[in-house]
Structure formats: structure tokens, C-alpha cells
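Blinded run. Sample ID left blank on purpose so nobody reads anything into the name before looking at the predicted structure. Input follows.
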Amino acid sequence: MKTKLYSMLLVLFLVSACTDLNLNPLSEGSSESWYSDQTEIEMALNDLYRDPFWPTDADDWSDDWTYRGQTNAITDATITGEWSTVISWWANTYKAVARATTLIENLEEVTDEIPEDKLTQYKADARFVRASQYARLVAHWGDVVYYNNTLELEESFTKATTDKATILATIYEDYDYAAANLPEEYGNSENLRATKGAALAMKARIALYMGNYALARDAAKDCMELGAYELYDDFGALFLSSTKNSVETIFAIPRSVELDVAFWDCKNYISRNSGGWGAKDPSWELFSAFYCTDGLPIDESPLYNPREPFNNRDPRCAATIVEFQTEHLGYMYQPHPDSTTCYSFKTGAYVKNNDNRVNAQYASYNGLLWKKGVDEDWSDDYKSDPDKIIMRYADVLLMYAEAKIELGEIDDSVLDAMNQVRARAYGVAVGETSSYPAVTTTSQEDLRQILRIERRMEFALEGRRYMDIIRWKLAEKVLNIPNYGMLDPVELKEKVVDADLWFFPETPVLDEDGVADFEPMYNAGLIKLLGLRTFDKSKQYLWPIPSKEILINENLTQNPGY
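Blinded prediction complete.
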């Protein structure tokens, strides 16, 4: 067992308070009276791993997503210091920082009844949390308020921002301390929190985000050389609620429906036949990004057929997006407008097909549904508790490869890391190169593009795409491209279906970044504009500081453009 927190869930549920920025909530003890024994310290540490302290970037902030053409504060460029996500992330992150810092300080005052090595481990645990919180802040806001000691209330209103380079140095120091003093794994009888591998992997991530490629390379390599993790053999099963604490998971926050820590938005994702709404769906851009089985993009591969767009695709395509004419949640999934009935595997009879927009106008607007992580657990009571995976081993492998590519250090280890991830998708060993399209090129430019597409195929619906397009400076391109979907049923039948042009009327052309161009199809009247995305590159690569923080602290300066 590695970083999972199942033994902590009940404790977290019992000690959790509301998530307002309250540095010493009464239900969790005061810093003046708490931390007096090992039990209280364990409870304080457990509290640092509550779900509100570990938010993940939303997929709907990226080009992998469509919600009936609707946009949000990021994809319509209306983000301000009043945006609820800005406010809650800032508040909860600093609350976690305050609690971790208070714990670290109080560990120095603990009586001798706790062994020194245990106190060191507790300190490493808290420093891991503090580093992760500051890493989130600098990744999204840049320069932020920094402190590593307990602040009096009045002092907190006078702190100015610190240069992010200075903060990064402290983040790396905290991660290094955590990696040096945390165990590689925990015994079954202990509470499970961060490990050495988690500290190394999280250090690699923020170093990669900040362009510190040598640090990212070394941290990822150190994590790999622990030998503590491996790729889970079944990519599709990895994300199911039935798969807990996998060999691939490095750091995750567990969920439990019974303890009211679960994923509650199932209806928006699942098919209408199974009782959902089919509203939040993969974008056509994501669907088009998956390579064919020859390792080529769809506009270059002779294997791609737009009439049968799932055929001959990287296996992660059908593991991520529901394939047409396959069983999904008890029904045959087919959004084709001629398929007004579909087969029910539950009853053995044909039933009305509500995943068809002829029958249900609000069925998926582009015909696609998410499959990744989705099973009957989502449709039985519309709530599920898969692991909230913050870091997994595939990410470490690809971070290592990316760092080496950017450093110009292209060797067999780069190709091996990328091919391990790709081979797993095909269900074969990395050495079976005749069974999957192994990466063989040593061109830095080619590898950079392949790596970026590999990340997109591997991490769809895992909250990774947003920070990828931010750090690669692709957001200004991909978030200014319209969102397209199918024509309305009558028009679709007249212009597309009767002309035998299903599913995509044509094969879109992909640019050097793997971004599909659907505009020619739109201009020809073959597809429908669902909505316009907008991204303001003059300001949106950083988030605004919450407006109320600016108002109460004259030493804070708002990020440019807000």
C-alpha cells in the first residue's frame, strides 16, 4: 500500500469542519491546546488530506470538453477576482498552508514521549502538504503571499506577494525534506498519507510546470528508481470505483459514498438511456486527437475511416469515449439519427433510443459520451466513489520523458518511458514492438509533439489538460476555437446521413499541435456551431487574486489585466 487514505476516511469525516478560512476551528482544537500527543498530531495531519484542500483543474476549462456549447469563466474569458473558484481555491489553499505551518511549529514543542524519528516523519508529512499547496498557488497565480510561520491576524493583512522564484525554492526544499524523511510505503495498520514517491513526483510536476527541466528530470527519475510503482495492466479498469489503491497510484484522495465523500455529478456524464443527461461530453477535438493504430494522426493514417471513426484507433480512444454500436450501461449506444430504437441488454428487447436526438433533443450534442471510469456504479444511484487520483506512475514516466526532450537529452530512456505508457494502452509488454506503434524517432521536435499528444490520450478527464495547454502556451490557440457538434436531426438527415457522411462528414485536418480544424465542415453546412470559446492571452495565463483580498490588504497588487 502506498499513499491511499482509506484508513483515514472515517477520521476525516468525524473531525472535518466547514471550509471557511478559519485557522483554528473549534471542532479541530486550538493551536494553544492541541498537538500535545500522538493522537492529536495524527488527527491534525489527517485533516490536511481532506478533499477541499486538494482541488484539481477542471476538464471543462480545456478543449477536451463540451457542455452543450456552454462556456465558463475560463473558456469565455470572464474570469475575475469574484469568480467562486478563485475565491475558494485561494481560501482553502491558504487554510491548508496555515494548518501545516502551525503543525510544523508545534512539533518542536511536543514532549519526549513521541520518538524523534516519528516527529521527523510528521514534519515531513506537513512539509509535503505545504509544498503542494504553494505549488498550486504559483502554478495558477504566479507571485503570491508567502509565509512559513504562524501569522497574527493583523500581520496577515499586511503581507505583500513574494516572487514565485523565491517561493519555488522553498517548495523544492519542502519536497526534498519530505522525500528524505517519508517512508516509501506504509503498513496496513498505519494511517496512509504522502510517501517518498509522492514527494518526488509532485516536485517533478511543479518543476516541469515552471520549466525547471533538470529538476523535473531528476525528481521523476528518483521516483522511478524507487521501484515502488508500476503501470496497472488494464487502462480501462484503472479508473473504476472498484479499483482501489492500484500499483500505479502514487498519491490520491479516496472517496466513499457511505461517508458522503463521492462524485455526485454522474447524471451529466452518463447516457440518457441509463437515466442520465448526456450533457457533459468529450469534444470532437479530443476525439480527433487519438492516433490510429499505426501511430499516425487521423488525417495522415490510411487506417482512418470517418464513417467508422473508432476503428483502428489507439485503444485509449474507446476506453475514454463510448464507441458506437457497443454496450454501455446496459444499452447499445448509437446516436445515429436512424437508430430510433436500441437493444437493451437488461431486458433482451429493443427500446426507445433516448441517446438519439430524434427522440431526445437534449441527448449528446456531438454524439460522444465519456466512458473513462464510468460503469454501472454511476447509474445505479447516480453517485460514485472512484479514487481522486492526484498523481500516478504514467505521469511520472511522461514527465521524465518530457523533461529530457526539452533538455535535448534524447536517449533510449526517453523512448522507453514513452513506450511503457503506450504499450500498456495496447495491453502488451513494452518489448513487443510489433504489437503496438512504438515511438522510435529521436527528433526533438517530433518527440515534443508526440509527447504532447500522448499526454492528451493518456490523461483525458483527469484534470491534466488545462495546465498542459497553459504551460505549453497553447491555450490562446485551442481556447479560441469554436465548439462544434451535430446538426439538428432533420438537417442532419438531409445533409449528412442521406449522403452517407456519418459520423464526421469529412476527416478534419490536424495542425502541428494535433488540433483539428472543423471550420471547413461548418462552412459547408455539415456541422453545427455549439458555442464560441474565448481566451485572453494578455492576462489569462495567470488567475486574478480574489478581489476581497486586494480590498483588505493595500500591499497586494492585482495580477495584470484584471
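Unblinding after everyone has recorded impressions. The longest strand covers residues 249-253.
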